[in-house]
Amino acid sequence: MENYKKEFIEFMVESKVLKFGDFTLKSGRKSPFFMNAGAYVTGSQLRRLGQYYAKAIHDHYGEDFDVLFGPAYKGIPLSVATTIAFSELYGKDIRYCSNRKEAKDHGDAGILLGSPIKDGDRVVIIEDVTTSGKSIEETFPIIKAQGDVEIVGLMVSLNRMERGKGEKSALEEVQELYGFKANAIVTMADVVEHLYNRECLGQIVIDDTLKAAIDAYYEQYGVKKA
């Protein structure tokens, strides 16, 4: 596993973005872990977060794209922080764009904020986590309505590695339905591999009991291997 991925896992725990315990998800599933990207609240956290996203995007999609699109609302600061980091790390200026939940009819009118998207643009979508693909369902037509635009791929921070609407993972469903690649900075398998019975921030985050709960969760909701 690359060093930046190990650092990112510890960063999520340190920032209290990735928590372990007993949680009821929006889907109704009872989960032993929960991720809330809204817990990134400081300038230093957003700076580091943008760097991790930029490294992962560069690893998977290179530099051959023009716009980083962050769906409202959590995708807005993600797209801004990551375009800044991409410029600092790789010396390439990527434009950022996000959508509004409601179109504005005065001043800077329209559904988009940030850079316009135009014919020929190659776009990478950035999100915190994808569990059902619902936000992509809303985002995809907005981007495509801007012209002859190619969506290169999707980058999320954590792949929960559980079934979406069907038997495949949410990221696999997005890739299959829309035809572009979907990747994550880290997977839950990476998280477990790095944290299981290993000290992080002065404590064992995933002990035998928690590991058993995570295994049981994936036995029930994980993607079934062929």
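the 2nd protein, sequnce then structure:
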Amino acid sequence: MISRKESFYNGFRLGFPIMLGYMPLGFAFGVVAVKNGISPFWAVTLSALVFAGAGQFIAASMLGAGASILSIAVANLLVNLRHVLMSAALVTPWKHLSFSWKMFLSFYQTDEIFAANISYYKAGKEVTVAQVLTLGFVAHSGWIIGTFIGALSGEQITNVEIYGLDFALPAMFTALLIPLIVDRIQIIVCLVGVISSLFFMELGFDRWSIIIATLISATIGLYLSLQKEKK
């Protein structure tokens, strides 16, 4: 059993690169929020209490367009349905945690934090509350700091895309994903997920494309794994 000090260190080590990746994305959100009529105070508050990258961008854009709170909530529900599948994958790594801790720590399960937690578990290491909490807190701080700076700079920035800030998140997630792909089945699942996601997006499914692609690739992965076990 690892010590609490080691757990904090592991959480910081895993969370620090994500924090660096979240800062430019938080900056971009801060700019977008201010340009859609959200005050810097509420932009930072939103990042502190919500912590949902794509969902926050959607909320800011919809608020700027005058959308209702209900429609914003429904849009966020759809775009974040993937978290149901992510939480299911954490059943085994978190089986020793109490229900109350699982509920609390679920707040920090963004795509990148989830990938870091899963890779840590698959490396055969013990997952502790201190490690998960530290990882989430460190990563979240980058998002909040970035939002704060972006919100204050909102009036001076006209287009965040010219700085390549919109590419930071997919680049970071790709870097976290690659070490997890270690055999033929995982390669197939990854390729099926990418291709089917792009395919359904082209068909106009938009936010549903990720959910559909995940279900298809996960089903294929399960089938191939069962076939492998039979041999």
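The two ends are 36 Å apart (CA to CA). The chain has a mean pLDDT of 84.
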